[in-house]
Amino acid sequence: MPRILIVEDEPDMRRGLQDNLEFDNYDVVTTSNGIEGLRLAQKEEFDLILLDLMLPGMDGIDVCRKLKEAGSTTPIIMLTARGSEADRVEGLEIGADDYITKPFSLRELMARIRAILRRVHHDDQFQVHEYRFGEFAVDFDNLTARRNDRELEFSSREFEILKLLIENEGKIVTREQFLKQVWGYTNVPATRTVDNHIAKLRQKIEDEPDNPRHIITAHRQGYRFIP
Ligand code: CA
């Protein structure tokens, strides 16, 4: 069971995160103080740290920096407020793996957590072989997909697109990444290929393909998957 440290001083936010993570079977440790967070992160083993930016004791940036300077490889997701805080985290090379701006949806945060854990853990439990979301079940090893009991017809390209999206759950996958990783291009051509395939995939898995819930457009960049 992955172990997560939450360093967050707002009680409602801390409790909300803890409840949701525990519900999803994570083992959770919390603290409201930056110094205590740093101490826990150095003393105990965690798979991931959710680190608020403004904290009593020591701010999140210093906690992150000290951990990375000490050689910690534990992934860190920074929780920031809108505007200047987000800019500060984005602009600084403090070694955080990701950051998310408050207010965020829990669905999106959970997706980012799963994506990071899959990326850093090379053990099997984090690799996508089979994946379920809503009424869908996709088996990437046997290339089958079902919605409830109905078999869906996906092309092999569509399976690869969906797999890449799911492996990056919650994060933007750029058109360039699709073209390199699914199509194997080294020099990426200007093409509507990715968008055309995404449109077809949406027809198969979205209830309203024009108002998608799972495969979300990131304006001018690419797409991201939300389960
Ligand atoms: Ca705070």
What features would you describe in this structure?
This protein is 39% helix and 22% strand. With 227 residues, it is α/β, with parallel strands linked by helices. The protein has 2 domains: 122 residues, Rossmann fold (3-Layer(aba) Sandwich), CATH 3.40.50; 96 residues, Winged helix-like DNA-binding domain superfamily/Winged helix DNA-binding domain (Arc Repressor Mutant, subunit A). The protein has a 5-stranded parallel beta sheet with strand order 2-1-3-4-5, sandwiched between helices. It has a 4-stranded antiparallel beta sheet with strand order 6-7-8-9, with no helix packed on it. A 3-stranded antiparallel beta sheet has the order 10-12-11. A hairpin with a 4-residue loop joins strand 7 and strand 8. It is globular, with a radius of gyration of 19 Å. The two termini are 21 Å apart. The protein binds calcium ion. The site of calcium ion has 5 residues, from loops.
In short:
The chain has helices at 11-23, 34-43, 60-69, 84-91, 106-120, 156-167, 175-181, 193-205; strands at residues 3-7, 27-31, 48-52, 76-80, 98-101, 130-133, 136-139, 144-147, 150-152, 173-174, 215-218, 222-225. With 227 residues, it is α/β, with parallel strands linked by helices. It folds into 2 domains: 3-124, 3-Layer(aba) Sandwich (Rossmann fold), CATH 3.40.50; 130-225, Winged helix-like DNA-binding domain superfamily/Winged helix DNA-binding domain (Arc Repressor Mutant, subunit A, Orthogonal Bundle), CATH 1.10.10.
